[in-house]
Amino acid sequence: MSAKNEMQDDVKITLVAGKLVRFIMSVAESQNTTISRGRLQKRAKEICEKEECGSVPFKEVLKKADRMLDDIYGYELKSLPPRSGTQDHTASKAQHYILLDKKKPIATLDELVFSHQVTNYMRTIQDGEYIGGKLNYETTNTLANRVGCDADIALKGLLCVVLCIVLFSKNHILQQELCEQLQTFGVPTDGSNIPIINMTFQDLLRLFEKQEYLIKEVERSGPELEVEIYRIGRRTQVEFPLESLVQLVMELIDVTDDQVPNLTQDIQRNIADSYAMTHNNDAANSSE
Question: pTM, whole model, 2 decimals?
Fold first, then answer.
Protein backbone atom coordinates (compact mmCIF):
# COMPACT_ATOMS: atom_id res chain seq x y z
CA MET A 1 0.00 0.00 0.00
CA SER A 2 1.38 3.41 -0.95
CA ALA A 3 2.00 6.19 1.56
CA LYS A 4 -0.77 8.20 -0.12
CA ASN A 5 -3.29 5.40 0.30
CA GLU A 6 -2.25 4.91 3.93
CA MET A 7 -2.80 8.62 4.56
CA GLN A 8 -6.22 8.46 2.92
CA ASP A 9 -7.14 5.48 5.09
CA ASP A 10 -6.01 7.35 8.22
CA VAL A 11 -8.18 10.31 7.25
CA LYS A 12 -11.19 8.03 6.77
CA ILE A 13 -10.59 6.25 10.08
CA THR A 14 -10.25 9.58 11.89
CA LEU A 15 -13.45 10.90 10.30
CA VAL A 16 -15.50 7.82 11.20
CA ALA A 17 -13.97 7.58 14.68
CA GLY A 18 -14.77 11.23 15.41
CA LYS A 19 -18.43 10.77 14.55
CA LEU A 20 -18.52 7.49 16.47
CA VAL A 21 -17.21 9.33 19.53
CA ARG A 22 -20.17 11.74 19.29
CA PHE A 23 -22.52 8.76 19.19
CA ILE A 24 -20.85 7.11 22.20
CA MET A 25 -21.00 10.32 24.23
CA SER A 26 -24.65 10.82 23.31
CA VAL A 27 -25.63 7.30 24.37
CA ALA A 28 -23.70 7.56 27.63
CA GLU A 29 -25.27 10.93 28.46
CA SER A 30 -28.87 10.26 27.47
CA GLN A 31 -29.34 6.55 28.19
CA ASN A 32 -26.70 5.65 30.81
CA THR A 33 -26.57 2.07 29.55
CA THR A 34 -23.89 -0.27 28.28
CA ILE A 35 -23.08 -0.07 24.57
CA SER A 36 -22.86 -3.29 22.59
CA ARG A 37 -20.12 -3.96 20.06
CA GLY A 38 -22.79 -4.76 17.48
CA ARG A 39 -24.41 -1.37 18.00
CA LEU A 40 -21.08 0.38 17.52
CA GLN A 41 -20.36 -1.63 14.37
CA LYS A 42 -23.77 -0.76 12.96
CA ARG A 43 -23.27 2.93 13.70
CA ALA A 44 -19.78 2.92 12.17
CA LYS A 45 -21.18 1.30 9.02
CA GLU A 46 -23.92 3.95 8.79
CA ILE A 47 -21.31 6.71 9.14
CA CYS A 48 -19.18 5.14 6.39
CA GLU A 49 -22.16 4.99 4.06
CA LYS A 50 -23.21 8.56 4.78
CA GLU A 51 -19.68 9.94 4.36
CA GLU A 52 -19.00 7.66 1.37
CA CYS A 53 -15.81 6.36 2.98
CA GLY A 54 -16.03 2.88 1.57
CA SER A 55 -14.82 0.02 3.73
CA VAL A 56 -13.01 1.04 6.93
CA PRO A 57 -11.69 -1.57 9.42
CA PHE A 58 -13.86 -1.37 12.53
CA LYS A 59 -11.01 -2.49 14.81
CA GLU A 60 -8.95 0.54 13.78
CA VAL A 61 -11.94 2.87 14.09
CA LEU A 62 -12.60 1.63 17.62
CA LYS A 63 -8.97 2.10 18.63
CA LYS A 64 -8.97 5.63 17.22
CA ALA A 65 -12.25 6.47 18.94
CA ASP A 66 -10.88 5.22 22.26
CA ARG A 67 -7.79 7.41 21.85
CA MET A 68 -9.98 10.42 21.04
CA LEU A 69 -12.12 9.80 24.11
CA ASP A 70 -8.98 9.70 26.25
CA ASP A 71 -7.17 12.67 24.68
CA ILE A 72 -10.17 15.00 24.48
CA TYR A 73 -12.46 14.00 27.34
CA GLY A 74 -10.35 11.87 29.66
CA TYR A 75 -12.63 8.86 29.17
CA GLU A 76 -11.92 5.21 28.44
CA LEU A 77 -14.18 2.90 26.46
CA LYS A 78 -13.92 0.03 28.94
CA SER A 79 -14.90 -3.50 27.99
CA LEU A 80 -17.17 -5.43 30.36
CA PRO A 81 -16.71 -9.03 31.46
CA PRO A 82 -19.26 -11.58 30.14
CA ARG A 83 -22.61 -11.71 31.88
CA SER A 84 -22.84 -14.08 34.82
CA GLY A 85 -23.83 -17.54 33.67
CA THR A 86 -22.48 -17.28 30.12
CA GLN A 87 -20.00 -19.88 28.95
CA ASP A 88 -17.64 -17.72 26.91
CA HIS A 89 -15.40 -16.28 29.62
CA THR A 90 -12.29 -16.25 27.42
CA ALA A 91 -13.63 -14.42 24.37
CA SER A 92 -10.93 -12.30 22.75
CA LYS A 93 -13.40 -9.59 21.72
CA ALA A 94 -15.42 -7.63 24.23
CA GLN A 95 -19.13 -7.48 23.44
CA HIS A 96 -20.22 -4.58 25.66
CA TYR A 97 -18.60 -1.34 26.79
CA ILE A 98 -19.08 1.53 29.21
CA LEU A 99 -17.42 4.93 29.49
CA LEU A 100 -15.08 5.32 32.45
CA ASP A 101 -13.78 8.67 33.64
CA LYS A 102 -9.97 8.39 33.81
CA LYS A 103 -9.32 11.95 34.98
CA LYS A 104 -7.60 12.13 38.33
CA PRO A 105 -9.82 13.72 40.98
CA ILE A 106 -8.94 17.23 42.08
CA ALA A 107 -9.77 17.54 45.77
CA THR A 108 -10.45 21.27 45.76
CA LEU A 109 -12.67 21.01 42.69
CA ASP A 110 -14.59 18.05 44.13
CA GLU A 111 -15.16 19.97 47.36
CA LEU A 112 -16.38 23.01 45.41
CA VAL A 113 -18.80 20.91 43.34
CA PHE A 114 -20.09 19.13 46.45
CA SER A 115 -20.58 22.43 48.27
CA HIS A 116 -22.45 23.81 45.26
CA GLN A 117 -24.70 20.74 45.14
CA VAL A 118 -25.47 20.95 48.86
CA THR A 119 -26.33 24.65 48.56
CA ASN A 120 -28.66 24.00 45.63
CA TYR A 121 -30.34 21.12 47.43
CA MET A 122 -30.90 23.11 50.63
CA ARG A 123 -32.78 25.71 48.58
CA THR A 124 -35.35 23.04 47.75
CA ILE A 125 -36.11 22.35 51.44
CA GLN A 126 -38.81 24.38 53.16
CA ASP A 127 -40.01 23.58 56.68
CA GLY A 128 -38.31 20.19 56.47
CA GLU A 129 -40.12 19.24 53.25
CA TYR A 130 -38.57 18.72 49.84
CA ILE A 131 -40.27 21.03 47.33
CA GLY A 132 -37.88 20.70 44.41
CA GLY A 133 -40.42 18.76 42.40
CA LYS A 134 -42.86 21.67 42.69
CA LEU A 135 -40.45 24.23 41.29
CA ASN A 136 -40.07 25.05 37.63
CA TYR A 137 -36.46 24.25 36.78
CA GLU A 138 -36.85 23.62 33.06
CA THR A 139 -35.10 26.86 32.11
CA THR A 140 -32.55 26.97 34.92
CA ASN A 141 -31.35 23.40 35.46
CA THR A 142 -28.62 23.46 32.85
CA LEU A 143 -24.97 22.47 33.06
CA ALA A 144 -24.09 26.11 32.56
CA ASN A 145 -25.61 27.34 35.80
CA ARG A 146 -26.24 24.31 37.98
CA VAL A 147 -23.98 21.36 38.74
CA GLY A 148 -26.10 18.21 38.76
CA CYS A 149 -29.73 18.00 39.75
CA ASP A 150 -31.55 16.69 42.79
CA ALA A 151 -32.83 13.51 41.11
CA ASP A 152 -29.42 12.57 39.71
CA ILE A 153 -27.67 13.10 43.03
CA ALA A 154 -30.33 11.19 44.97
CA LEU A 155 -30.24 8.34 42.46
CA LYS A 156 -26.47 8.03 42.74
CA GLY A 157 -26.73 8.05 46.52
CA LEU A 158 -29.33 5.29 46.48
CA LEU A 159 -27.22 3.29 44.04
CA CYS A 160 -24.24 3.53 46.38
CA VAL A 161 -26.33 2.38 49.35
CA VAL A 162 -27.89 -0.52 47.42
CA LEU A 163 -24.54 -1.73 46.09
CA CYS A 164 -22.93 -1.63 49.53
CA ILE A 165 -25.82 -3.59 51.03
CA VAL A 166 -25.53 -6.26 48.34
CA LEU A 167 -21.73 -6.40 48.52
CA PHE A 168 -21.60 -6.76 52.30
CA SER A 169 -24.29 -9.44 52.15
CA LYS A 170 -21.61 -11.57 50.46
CA ASN A 171 -23.02 -10.63 47.07
CA HIS A 172 -26.17 -12.66 47.68
CA ILE A 173 -29.25 -11.03 49.19
CA LEU A 174 -32.95 -11.80 49.08
CA GLN A 175 -35.17 -9.01 47.79
CA GLN A 176 -37.05 -8.99 51.09
CA GLU A 177 -33.79 -8.55 53.00
CA LEU A 178 -32.72 -5.74 50.67
CA CYS A 179 -36.12 -4.15 51.17
CA GLU A 180 -35.76 -4.29 54.96
CA GLN A 181 -32.25 -2.83 54.84
CA LEU A 182 -33.36 0.10 52.68
CA GLN A 183 -36.24 0.81 55.05
CA THR A 184 -33.66 1.52 57.77
CA PHE A 185 -32.36 4.32 55.53
CA GLY A 186 -35.85 5.79 55.25
CA VAL A 187 -36.48 4.50 51.73
CA PRO A 188 -40.19 3.65 51.23
CA THR A 189 -40.70 0.13 49.87
CA ASP A 190 -44.49 -0.04 50.12
CA GLY A 191 -45.13 0.88 46.48
CA SER A 192 -45.19 4.64 47.03
CA ASN A 193 -42.77 6.88 45.16
CA ILE A 194 -39.36 7.51 46.66
CA PRO A 195 -39.03 11.28 47.25
CA ILE A 196 -36.96 13.31 44.78
CA ILE A 197 -36.44 10.49 42.24
CA ASN A 198 -40.20 9.84 41.97
CA MET A 199 -40.08 6.11 41.36
CA THR A 200 -41.09 3.10 43.41
CA PHE A 201 -38.73 0.64 45.08
CA GLN A 202 -39.49 -1.96 42.39
CA ASP A 203 -38.91 0.55 39.59
CA LEU A 204 -35.60 1.50 41.19
CA LEU A 205 -34.42 -2.11 41.22
CA ARG A 206 -35.53 -2.58 37.62
CA LEU A 207 -33.58 0.52 36.60
CA PHE A 208 -30.40 -0.75 38.28
CA GLU A 209 -30.92 -4.11 36.56
CA LYS A 210 -31.32 -2.46 33.17
CA GLN A 211 -28.16 -0.44 33.72
CA GLU A 212 -26.40 -3.68 34.76
CA TYR A 213 -25.45 -2.50 38.23
CA LEU A 214 -27.50 -5.39 39.65
CA ILE A 215 -28.37 -8.92 38.59
CA LYS A 216 -31.62 -10.54 39.68
CA GLU A 217 -31.70 -14.31 39.93
CA VAL A 218 -34.94 -16.20 40.50
CA GLU A 219 -34.73 -19.47 42.41
CA ARG A 220 -37.52 -21.91 43.13
CA SER A 221 -37.79 -23.02 46.74
CA GLY A 222 -40.95 -25.01 46.13
CA PRO A 223 -43.48 -25.96 43.44
CA GLU A 224 -45.08 -22.52 43.46
CA LEU A 225 -42.64 -20.41 45.45
CA GLU A 226 -40.02 -18.26 43.73
CA VAL A 227 -37.29 -16.39 45.57
CA GLU A 228 -35.64 -13.31 44.06
CA ILE A 229 -31.95 -12.88 44.83
CA TYR A 230 -29.74 -9.92 43.95
CA ARG A 231 -26.03 -9.80 43.12
CA ILE A 232 -23.90 -7.00 41.76
CA GLY A 233 -23.76 -6.71 37.98
CA ARG A 234 -20.74 -6.61 35.71
CA ARG A 235 -20.99 -2.85 35.34
CA THR A 236 -20.54 -2.46 39.09
CA GLN A 237 -17.48 -4.69 38.95
CA VAL A 238 -15.85 -2.28 36.49
CA GLU A 239 -17.18 1.12 37.63
CA PHE A 240 -16.97 0.41 41.37
CA PRO A 241 -14.02 -1.97 41.83
CA LEU A 242 -12.68 -3.30 45.11
CA GLU A 243 -10.26 -0.38 45.42
CA SER A 244 -13.15 2.10 45.27
CA LEU A 245 -15.10 0.14 47.88
CA VAL A 246 -12.09 0.19 50.20
CA GLN A 247 -11.70 3.94 49.66
CA LEU A 248 -15.37 4.52 50.47
CA VAL A 249 -15.13 2.55 53.72
CA MET A 250 -11.94 4.40 54.64
CA GLU A 251 -13.70 7.75 54.29
CA LEU A 252 -16.74 6.59 56.24
CA ILE A 253 -14.88 5.21 59.26
CA ASP A 254 -11.76 7.41 59.11
CA VAL A 255 -9.16 4.67 58.72
CA THR A 256 -5.45 5.47 58.96
CA ASP A 257 -3.02 4.43 56.23
CA ASP A 258 -1.40 1.71 58.34
CA GLN A 259 -4.82 0.09 58.84
CA VAL A 260 -5.55 -0.18 55.11
CA PRO A 261 -4.06 -3.68 54.52
CA ASN A 262 -6.12 -5.23 57.31
CA LEU A 263 -9.21 -3.30 56.21
CA THR A 264 -8.86 -4.58 52.65
CA GLN A 265 -8.59 -8.16 53.90
CA ASP A 266 -11.65 -7.73 56.12
CA ILE A 267 -13.66 -6.31 53.23
CA GLN A 268 -12.62 -9.14 50.92
CA ARG A 269 -13.80 -11.69 53.47
CA ASN A 270 -17.17 -9.96 53.78
CA ILE A 271 -17.94 -9.49 50.09
CA ALA A 272 -17.18 -13.10 49.07
CA ASP A 273 -16.81 -13.57 45.29
CA SER A 274 -18.19 -10.17 44.27
CA TYR A 275 -15.24 -9.28 42.04
CA ALA A 276 -14.10 -12.77 41.05
CA MET A 277 -15.30 -12.48 37.44
CA THR A 278 -13.52 -9.18 36.89
CA HIS A 279 -10.19 -10.54 38.09
CA ASN A 280 -10.55 -13.67 35.99
CA ASN A 281 -11.16 -11.64 32.84
CA ASP A 282 -8.43 -9.02 33.20
CA ALA A 283 -6.01 -10.99 31.07
CA ALA A 284 -8.57 -11.64 28.33
CA ASN A 285 -9.60 -7.99 28.14
CA SER A 286 -6.02 -6.72 28.08
CA SER A 287 -5.19 -8.96 25.13
CA GLU A 288 -8.06 -7.66 23.02
Answer: 0.79
d(CA 186, CA 157): 13
Q: Which candidate, 161, 162, 140, 158, places its Cα nearest to that of 149? A: 140
- CB count in 10 Å sphere of residue 161: 14
CB-based contacts of 154, cutoff 8 Å, min separation 6: 195, 196, 197
**Which tens digits make up the pLDDT trace of 67-120?**
999 999 999 999 998 876 554 444 556 789 999 988 877 778 777 877 877 777
- What Å distances lie between residue 33 and 167, 235, 280, 286, CA to CA? 21, 9, 23, 22
> Which residues, in sequence order, are bridge partners of residue 198?
none
DSSP 8-state secondary structure symbol assigned to residue 219: E
CA distance 180 to 174: 10
Q: CA 111 to CA 227: how far, in whole Å?
A: 43
User: Taking CA 36 as the corner, what is the angle to CA 60 and CA 175, rounded to the nearest 5 degrees?
Assistant: 150
Half-sphere exposure of residue 143: CA atoms within 13 angstroms, side-chain side: 1
Go through 237-253 and write b for each residue having 16 or more CB atoms within 10 A of its CB, e for each that does not: bbbbebeebbeebbeee
Q: Count the residues in the chain.
A: 288
